[in-house]
Amino acid sequence: MDVKAEVVEILNTIIGEDISDQMDDDFFESGLLDSMATVELLLDLETKFDIQAPVSEFDRNDWNTPNKVIAKVESLMG
Amino acid sequence: MLNLQPYADPKYFIILLLALLPLAIGLYFGKRFAWYEVLVSVVFIFLMFDGHKYHEGFALIGYMIWQWLLVWAYTIYRKKANNSWVFYGTTVLAIVPLALVKIAPAAHWTHVTTLLGFMGISYLTFRSVAMIMETRDGTIKEFNPWLFLRFMLFMPTISSGPIDRYCRFVKDINSVPAREKYIDMLSKAVHFFFLGFLYKFVLSYIFGTLLLPRVEHMAMLSAHANGGWSWWLIGVMYAYGLDLFFDFAGYSLFAVATGYVMGIEVPMNFNLPFLSKNLKEFWNRWHMTLSFWFRDFVFMRLVFMMMKNKWFKSRVTTSNVAYIANMLIMGFWHGLTWYYIAYGLFHGVGLVVNDAWLRYKKKHHVPHNKFTEAFAIVLTFHVVMLSFLLFSGFLDTLWFHQHH
């Protein structure tokens, strides 16, 4: 399973635009992702990759760019 | 007997900085004197709750034992099992003392207030409830009684926040900032102290002490003749709203600055809230540690639960329900009065409207330039000010409790 492609696709669907050219941009700062969208992201990642990503684990400094989300998912899949 | 209320007068600052001096010297040379820090905290907390406030001191001790037992027992339980009802039960038990203290004035239970109430109970409850939730999620795995006490009773923030998070706090308290970083923190602390003096002792004094009583008096007089309405209410709105901001932001700056001197990066509470272009942005800039607490421990969890169990088909309905519930709970937390609850509802509905507007803007072409931005800032400011007038309780006095 290509984690990177899958995560990008999930993010694209939630945000509603293609983010593959802004893999290191902070999506909280740019306002692309709000708390609502964040929960959708966590739920989608949970279903797609069968990982446990509870709300408390979600630290806005560790999850704020597409690349960091990919890294997190990979580490949670361990 | 000497009683020192936090950041109340120049004497407090002098005593505080003298007491923190050895700690600062230690940090400068790369040492954190944990025992000395605890000693200073204990002495200052004692001075807050001694003298005529002794019953608050006993309430604090009882409260701490209660929370200590709950968090400890839940951590032990959580290692073995993870039943949702045990989690809900523990959370409710952690909130019970605060809930009783909040219900007491409305129900006229004066004994409950004397027995359980103390300054800062809300802020301690936010910390311990967050710990229980993070323990459930597995973010906190061990109960460390020593760190628990230091986190809960961190002196600079004990009475009114900012609300820190356990994991963030522990990282700071278990390390020493590098010398360059610490010097930078000290220079920020000096800046925050002086900005705080300007906010609290100059601007809040002007708006709250000099102006507010006068405009309130005028509003009372003219409303009496005009069936409850008076143009002076607009003056009350501005004076109260600006006093609220400068008083609380000033206090928060003191707490953050004191934390920095102690080598702890206490999170900021305000970020130029009156420059917000919409209500959502306002809540990311106003009383931030409280609004982020509600975002992470109420809003996101509610949304998570509603989405996972598919309560509503529509994403919009889900977020609207969560907004209203979130802000209503915040209203209730302020106290059981109609105006606090109305304030919560006002902001819940405000966020729903705000979100609808943002969705509309995404789909349709809406002109956007410097003037629309300036208009948005002015509009947001006034919506917020209006909500503060509601929050102030002045309308309650004016309409329902005016005695002649």
TrEMBL record, chain A:
Pfam family, one: PP-binding
MF-aspect GO terms: D-alanyl carrier activity; ligase activity
Modification comment: 4'-phosphopantetheine is transferred from CoA to a specific serine of apo-DCP.
Family the UniProt entry places it in: Belongs to the DltC family.
Cellular compartment(s): Cytoplasm
Role this protein plays: Carrier protein involved in the D-alanylation of lipoteichoic acid (LTA). The loading of thioester-linked D-alanine onto DltC is catalyzed by D-alanine--D-alanyl carrier protein ligase DltA. The DltC-carried D-alanyl group is further transferred to cell membrane phosphatidylglycerol (PG) by forming an ester bond, probably catalyzed by DltD. D-alanylation of LTA plays an important role in modulating the properties of the cell wall in Gram-positive bacteria, influencing the net charge of the cell wall.
Annotated GO biological process: cell wall organization; lipoteichoic acid biosynthetic process
Organism from which the protein derives: Leuconostoc falkenbergense
Primary location recorded for the protein, binned into one broad class: cytoplasm
Gene Ontology CC: cytoplasm
NCBIfam families found in the cross-reference section: dltC, PRK05087.1
Protein name listed in UniProt: D-alanyl carrier protein
Entry keyword set: Cell wall biogenesis/degradation, Cytoplasm, Ligase, Phosphopantetheine, Phosphoprotein
Pathway the protein contributes to: Cell wall biogenesis; lipoteichoic acid biosynthesis
InterPro entries: ACP-like_sf (IPR036736), DltC (IPR003230), PP-bd_ACP (IPR009081)
O-(pantetheine 4'-phosphoryl)serine carried by residues: 35
All copies of domain Carrier, residue ranges: 1-77
